[in-house]
Amino acid sequence: MGLALKLAHQGIHGVAGNPMVGCVIEKEGRIIASGYHQIFGEAHAEINALNQIDHQAIGATLYVTLEPCSHHGKTPPCAQAIINSGAKKVIIATLDPNPLVSGQGVSMLRAAGIDVSVGLLEDQAITLNRGFIKRMKSKRPFVTCKIGMSLDGKTSMLTGQSKWITGDSARNDVQKLRNINQAIMTGSGTILADNPSLTVRLEGSSNTPLRVVVDSKHQITDKSLNIFSANAPTQVFNTHNTQLTDSGKIELNDVLLQLSEQGINTVLLEAGPGLVGAMIEQQLIDEFIIYTAPILMGSKANSMALLPIDNLSDKINLNINDLRMVGNDIRITASFKS
Among 10, 23, 162, 198, which residue's CB has the most CB atoms within a 10 Å radius? Predict the structure, then answer.
């Protein structure tokens, strides 16, 4: 199953809105085939593995990272292909949260007399497809918020200057973050202040995440801005194409719902304190990755200032899930306490 999970991850840039899935076929203690879901709309992991042995898996065991599908979508049901192959056992890491599948693939296999077990390395399988699972369950993508700040909690100078707070290693790590997300989201203020490209700049990567701009004041009109470069798609959300709150602001939940409808499972939020604070207030962020540089920027610099909190009792509690050094900077991965 560990090998199947590693194979599944290779589909990260090809499966689009589908889950990443790997499959390993074993018989008499020997791996006889393996495969993973490579391209959206094309063969699933189980089929790619079965193709290697002409769909002859008599007496074999399949290790699959996600429940085999039981319905006709863009491809025929994998559960039926497994049944037809003569496999005797299927070990599944986790059930498919898609209501078109959930539990039905297992039922289909068991009804055909195949021994099925679920739960091997389940936590790893859930983490692998956390974006897909979040989208299936809540109709919203998994949102990771990236923040870069000084040791005294500053994110830019009074003039807006922020290049560069963190070091080269941290900035390269951010490129890796961009590379594993389907969309990069920011606000119009960041676009006007920094004119970022928001593209993946990693050698060998061909990933082009959708660039998403929240523009409540219709300020992003200059098509010469880097956000409109031809090397990645861009979508601007404004008051004309998004639901509004009672106060006339863009409904951020609707932005995420629209992205979800486009098959976006994962979003990296790289924005200023205004948009980040609004996302926190509406509980739309799933994870924080905070890069803290060993520098002090002083009292005149702009702080994170994400939300106006008057009383200590109203503080926001987080769980620190990971803490490591990236070059000379500290990278903190955190999430809200449940």
Answer: 23
**Cβ neighbours of 179 (radius 10 Å):** 18
Any idea what DSSP says for residue 250? B
pLDDT, tens digit (0-9, with 9 covering 90-100), for 67-110: 999 877 777 899 999 999 999 999 999 999 988 788 999 999 99
Cis peptide before 164 (omega within 30 of 0): yes
Contacts of 301 (CB under 8 A, 6+ apart): 150, 152, 154, 155, 156, 157, 158
Handedness of CA 275, 281, 287, 291 (dihedral sign): positive
The helix or strand, by DSSP H or E, that contains position 137, with its residue range, turns out to be helix 130-138
The angle subtended at Cα 257 by Cα 255 and Cα 261, nearest 5°, is 120
Q: Is 124 helix (H, G, I), strand (E, B) or coil?
A: helix
What is the distance between the alpha carbons of residues 84 and 68, in angstroms, rounded to a whole number?
14
Which tokens go with 282? 């509406």
- Residues carrying an active site annotation: 46
Contact 198, 227 (CB under 8 A): yes
pTM: 0.93
Q: Which two tokens stand for residue 297?
A: 């920027």
Structure letter (DSSP) for residue 72: -
Q: How far is residue 156's CA from residue 257's CA, in Å, rounded to a whole number? A: 31
Q: How far apart are CA 268 and CA 272, in angstroms?
A: 13
